[in-house]
Design goal:
The structure is a single chain. By secondary structure, the chain is an alpha+beta fold. The protein contains three helices and 13 strands, in the order ββαβββαββββαββββ. A five-stranded mixed sheet has the order 10-9-8-11-12. Strands 2-1-3-4 form a four-stranded antiparallel sheet. The longest helix is centred in the first third of the chain and has 15 residues. It comes from Bacteroides vicugnae.
Length: 198
C-alpha cells in the first residue's frame, strides 16, 4: 500500500482544502504508524508563484518524503463504462493503483469507468461521484476513497450520503464527478446510453 499520496489544488498561489488534506494525511499515518506525531502540511508546501492551476503532490509514509508541483489540466470525461469489482480496496490514497488501473483499461470506448462493488456504485478511477434525482445530489455511502472534496461537500451539505444500488441508476438524471482538482459541477454527465455505458 505504501507510499501514500495527497494531491492538493493550488490556484494562483492559493492552497485549497488544506485542512481536509492534513486531516486525512494524519489519519493515514496514525493507521499505519501508531506512534507518529501529527504534522501540519503547511510546513511542507511552498506554492508556485506562477498563475493558473497547479497540482501539488505529496508523497509520504511516516514522514513526508517528496513534494512536487506541476501545471494541471483537467481530464475531459464525457462517458463512463460500468465495471464490477467486489474485491477492490482503495481505502487509503496510495501511489499503488494497480487495481484501479486494471479496471480503467476495461473502459472500452468510454473516457473512464464507474466502479460497482457488491452491487453498489462507488467511484470512478479518478473521482468521487454524486447522482442527482431532480432535487438532491446523493453520493455513495461507501466510496472506494473518502476524498477531501467529498468531505467538504458533505460538511457544506451540498451532497448527502446514500447507498446507491447499480439497479437504481434509472432513478437519477445526472452524475457529477469531483476530486481535489475537480470542483463542484465542473463535470456533470446526463445518465443515458450515450454517456453511461452499461
Amino acid at each position: 500500500m505504501y507510499p501514500f499520496i495527497e494531491t492538493i489544488r493550488i490556484e494562483d498561489g492559493q492552497i485549497y482544502n488544506l485542512d481536509y488534506h492534513t486531516e486525512r494525511f494524519n489519519k493515514t499515518r496514525a493507521a499505519f504508524w501508531k506512534d507518529c506525531t501529527p504534522l501540519d502540511l503547511r510546513e511542507f508546501i511552498s506554492p508556485p508563484t506562477l498563475n493558473g492551476i497547479h497540482k501539488c503532490r505529496i508523497v509520504y509514509g511516516k514522514e513526508v518524503e517528496e513534494v512536487t508541483y506541476a501545471p494541471y489540466q483537467m481530464r475531459q470525461v464525457s462517458s463512463l463504462h460500468l465495471v464490477v469489482s467486489d474485491t477492490i480496496d482503495y481505502t487509503y490514497k496510495s501511489a499503488h493503483r494497480e487495481e484501479l488501473n486494471a479496471l480503467y483499461v476495461q473502459r472500452g470506448m468510454a473516457d473512464d469507468v464507474l466502479i460497482v462493488r457488491n452491487g453498489y456504485l462507488t467511484d470512478t478511477s479518478i473521482a468521487n461521484v454524486a447522482l442527482y434525482d431532480g432535487d438532491t445530489w446523493f453520493t455513495p455511502a461507501h466510496p472506494l476513497l473518502r476524498g477531501t472534496k467529498r468531505s467538504e461537500f458533505l460538511d457544506r451539505q451540498l451532497i448527502v450520503e446514500k447507498d446507491i444500488p447499480q439497479i437504481c441508476l434509472k432513478d437519477y438524471s445526472h452524475i457529477m464527478l469531483f476530486n481535489a482538482m475537480i470542483d463542484w459541477k465542473r463535470i456533470i454527465l446526463p445518465i443515458n446510453e450515450k454517456h453511461l455505458i452499461l
